[in-house]
Amino acid sequence: MIGERLFDLRKDSGLTQDALADVLKINKHSISSYERDKSEPPDAIKIAISEYFHVSVDYLLGVTDNPLPAVLTSDYLRLPQGFPAEAQQELLRYAVYLKQVYTGSGGRKK
Predict the structure, then answer these.
(1) Among positive and negative, which fits the CA dihedral 41, 43, 45, 47?
(2) Per-residue pLDDT averaged across 93-98, rounded?
(3) How many C-beta atoms surround the C-beta of residue 97 within 10 A?
(4) Would you say 24 and 52 are in contact if contact means Cβ atoms under 8 Å apart?
(5) Where does residue 6 rank: exposed (0-12), middle (13-18), buried (19+ CB within 10 A)?
(6) How is residue 105 annotated by DSSP?
(7) For 2-27, how does the pLDDT look when each residue is reduced to its tens digit (9 = 90+)?
(8) Which residue among 20, 72, 105, 110 has the highest number of C-beta atoms inside a 10 angstrom radius?
(9) Alpha-carbon distance 11 to 98, whole Å?
């Protein structure tokens, strides 16, 4: 189950196996092996995958079909499916800018 879910998450994010391997700091062959269910990632990699894609480990394992983590924090922002990975850094920079604009005087816009 994790292989299919990982493949879908990676494809929906527009990432290659190489790009995801770089993010997770593992080799491309490991990604390929996980996606084909030839091997199962260690728990630390499962956690890293779930954090990167903002899904629960339960979703990766097939325990639930709901990809959202059980507990959402106020820092959580769900991006549209297929949101380009390369645009995420730009979005983060814009979020930091907006925080500066809105928190400069007691949380209100300057």
Answers:
(1) positive
(2) 87
(3) 10
(4) yes
(5) buried
(6) B
(7) 999 999 999 999 999 999 999 999 99
(8) 20
(9) 30
Question: Of residues 106 and 33, which shows the higher confidence score?
Answer: 33
Q: How many helices (H) and strands (E) does the chain have?
A: 6, 0
CA–CA–CA angle 71, 54, 23 (5° rounding): 145
3-state class of 108 per DSSP?
strand
DSSP for residue 78: P
Residues with Cβ within 8 Å of residue 95, at least 6 apart in sequence: 77
Cβ 5 vs Cβ 66: under 8 Å = no
- Give me the residue label for tokens 């990432």: 15
pTM passes above 0.85 = no
Q: What HEC string does 37-82 produce?
A: CCCCCCHHHHHHHHHHHCCCHHHHHCCCCCCCCCCCCCCCCCCCCC
Q: Output 110 or 63, whichever has higher pLDDT.
A: 63
Q: At what angle do helices 28-35 and 2-12 cross, to 10 degrees?
A: 120
